[in-house]
Design a protein that fits this description.
Elements (H helix, E strand, L loop, with lengths): L41 H8 L32 H23 L1 H7 L4 H10 L17 H14 L1 H11 L10 H8 L6 E14 L2 E11 L7 E10 L2 E2 L1 E2 L2 E2 L1 E7 L4 E3 L14 E11 L3 E3 L13 H4 L3 H5 L2 H21 L15 H33 L6 H28 L10 H12 L9 H9 L12
Parallel strand pairs: 1-3
Antiparallel strand pairs: 1-2, 2-9, 3-4, 3-7, 5-6, 7-10, 8-9
Helix pairs in contact: 2-4, 2-5, 5-6, 5-10, 6-10, 10-11, 10-12, 10-13, 11-12, 12-13, 12-14
Length: 476
C-alpha cells in the first residue's frame, strides 16, 4: 500500500544452535499465526482499485474541528524527513479509507468484547501494527509523532480501535532488548502483532537455558489478535527471589500466543468494551533465555534497534504516552458528534436548534479550546523530545517531566471536553444509539490508566525540580 514496505512473501527462520532455536516453527504461514487476518483487507484493495480517495469523503454532517490530522502539513514545524512525511500521509489516508469499516464494526466489537477480525486484518494490512518495528525487520520505524497522530485519528473514529492501534502499534519498541536472533524470529513475520502487560508480575523460575514462568496478567489489550505476548515476572533461583543490584529482578518474557490461556469472561467493563483487554495466564511454560530481557535503562541489545527511536527517545513516551493521543481522538470524535446533533436537535420546549443557542456556543468553544490547546502542548513536547533524540542525546529529567505533564494534561483536558460535549447534547446522549455515550465511557476508562492519569501531575512537578519520580518507569 503506497509507500509501505512490501509484505514478506514467506517467513523463513533459520534453525540455529542457540536458545532461539527452541521456538522455531512458530511462524508457520505467509501471514504469521493468523492467516485469517487476510479477511477484511479486500475493502482497502477495492477502494484503491477503483481509484477512490476516501480521505476527503464526508457523510454530509457538519464538523467544527481542528484541521483534520490527515491534512496537517508534515513539513516545516515537525521537520520530518520526506520519507517520514510520505509515510504519515500514506497511513492517514489508509485510516481515512477504513473509517466506514471501523464504524460499521464498532457495535460488534462492543458486544463481543474485542475488535472484529475484519477490522484487525485491514489495519494490519495498512501497517499500523508495524509502526515501531525497525525497517531492517520489515517494519516502518516511524517517528513518534506519526504513531501519535495515527492513534488519535483512529480513536476519533472509535475509541476501542484507537486504543488497540496505540498499544499494539508500539509493541515493536519492546524488542530492542532482545538478542538479534529472537528479534528477527518475532518481528520479521509478515503483519506480526505483539502485545502484553506488566502488572502484577508473574513468577519465573530459573532453568537450564531459560525459565519456567507462571502467572496471570490482566488488561492485555488486543490479546486475541496477537502472535506474541510479553509478560513481566519476578525471577526466582534456588528458591529465592533473585536481585538485580539491590532490587528484585524484574524480567519480561516473550511467549507465543498459542502457549497462553486467555480468560474469556475476564473483560466485563463499562468503557473500552471493544478492546479485548482480557486476563491471560501461563502455567509452568518454558521460555528460552533469549526470549527474555531485564527491565531497566540499559541500551538496546539488538543491532536492529539502534536508531534514535530506540536508543535515545524516552521509552515511556514511546509506549505509554501515546494514550494521551487516543484521549484527544476520543474527545475530537465527541465534539464532531455533538456538532452534527446540534444542526437538527431542538431542546424540549424550544424553537431554536441547539446550534443557535448561546449556551451551546459556550460549551462548544470550551471543549474545542481544551482539546486544541492540549494537543498543541502534547505535540510540541513530542517534537522537542524527538529533536533531542535525533541529536543522539538522551532527554533530561526536566524534559521528561514536561512529557509527563503534557500527556497527563491531554488526558485530563480530553475528558473534560468529552464531558462538555455529552452534557451539551442533553438526554439524546444517553441513548445507546448515540456515539456520545460510548465516548463518555471510553474516555473515563482511559483516564484511569496510571501512565497518564491526573495523579501524574505530581510526578511531573517532581521531575521539573530535578527530583526523580516515585514511578521508575518514567525514567526509561
Amino acid at each position: 500500500m503506497g509507500n509501505l514496505p512490501p509484505s514478506v512473501s514467506s517467513c523463513v527462520i533459520r534453525s540455529l544452535a542457540s536458545p532461539c532455536s527452541n521456538y522455531d516453527g512458530i511462524v508457520n504461514s505467509p501471514r504469521g499465526l493468523h492467516p485469517d487476518r487476510r479477511r477484511g483487507t479486500e475493502f482497502v484493495c477495492a477502494v484503491q482499485a477503483v481509484g477512490f480517495d476516501l480521505t476527503d469523503i464526508h457523510d454530509g454532517k457538519s464538523r467544527v474541528t481542528h484541521p483534520r490530522l490527515r491534512n496537517i502539513p508534515t513539513e516545516g514545524k515537525d521537520d520530518m524527513a520526506e520519507m517520514d512525511a510520505q509515510q504519515l500521509d500514506t497511513l492517514l489516508r489508509s485510516i481515512g479509507a477504513l473509517e466506514p469499516l471501523i464504524r460499521e464494526h464498532a457495535d460488534e466489537a462492543e458486544r463481543n468484547g474485542r475488535l472484529s477480525e475484519t477490522v484487525v486484518a485491514a489495519l494490519a494490512e495498512a501497517g499500523v501494527f508495524r509502526m515501531f518495528i525497525p525497517r531492517s525487520l520489515g517494519g516502518l520505524e516511524v517517528p513518534p509523532q506519526t504513531l501519535y497522530r495515527v492513534s488519535e485519528e483512529v480513536a476519533r473514529i472509535d475509541g476501542s480501535t484507537g486504543w488497540c492501534v496505540c498499544l499494539l502499534g508500539v509493541g515493536g519498541s519492546f524488542g530492542k532488548y532482545l538478542c538479534d536472533e529472537a528479534a528477527e524470529k518475532i518481528f520479521t513475520a509478515p503483519q506480526v502483532i505483539t502485545g502484553g502487560t506488566i502488572y502484577p508480575p508473574g513468577k519465573a523460575v530459573v532453568q537450564d537455558g531459560g525459565y519456567i514462568i507462571s502467572g496471570r496478567w490482566p488488561y492485555a489489550s488486543g490479546c486475541h489478535h496477537c502472535d506474541w505476548l510479553a509478560a513481566a515476572c519476578h525471577v526466582f533461583e534456588n528458591g529465592e527471589r533473585r536481585l538485580a543490584g539491590e532490587v528484585p529482578e524484574l524480567r519480561w518474557f516473550y511467549v507465543p500466543r498459542t502457549d497462553v490461556t486467555i480468560h474469556e469472561d475476564s473483560w466485563q467493563v463499562s468503557g473500552f468494551c471493544g478492546t479485548g483487554s482480557n486476563t491471560y495466564s501461563l502455567d509452568k511454560v518454558f521460555v528460552p533465555e533469549a526470549y527474555s530481557f531485564l527491565v531497566g535503562s540499559q541500551p538496546p541489545q539488538s543491532k536492529h534497534f539502534q536508531g534514535p527511536l530506540y536508543r535515545y527517545y524516552p521509552w515511556i513516551s514511546a509506549f505509554a504516552f501515546p494514550m494521551a493521543a487516543v484521549a484527544l481522538g476520543i474527545a475530537q470524535g465527541a465534539i464532531d458528534a455533538v456538532v452534527t446533533l446540534a444542526e437538527s436537535k431542538k431542546p424540549a420546549g424550544q424553537k431554536q436548534t441547539l446550534r443557535d443557542r448561546p449556551g451551546f456556543h459556550f460549551q462548544l468553544a470550551d471543549a474545542v479550546a481544551l482539546v486544541e490547546s492540549a494537543r498543541a502542548w502534547l505535540y510540541a513536547s513530542i517534537d522537542h523530545a524527538w529533536e533531542v533524540a535525533t541529536t543522539k542525546r538522551e532527554a533530561s529529567l526536566e524534559e521528561r517531566g514536561r512529557l509527563v505533564l503534557a500527556a497527563a494534561n491531554a488526558t485530563r483536558s480530553a475528558a473534560r471536553a468529552t464531558d462538555l460535549a455529552y452534557t451539551a447534547a442533553g438526554g439524546t446522549a444517553n441513548y445507546l444509539s448515540s456515539p456520545l455515550q460510548r465516548s463518555l465511557r471510553d474516555i473515563h476508562a482511559l483516564i484511569q490508566h496510571v501512565a497518564t492519569s491526573p495523579q501524574q501531575f505530581e510526578a511531573g512537578g517532581r521531575m521539573l525540580l530535578g527530583i526523580e519520580p516515585s514511578y521508575a518507569f518514567f525514567l526509561l
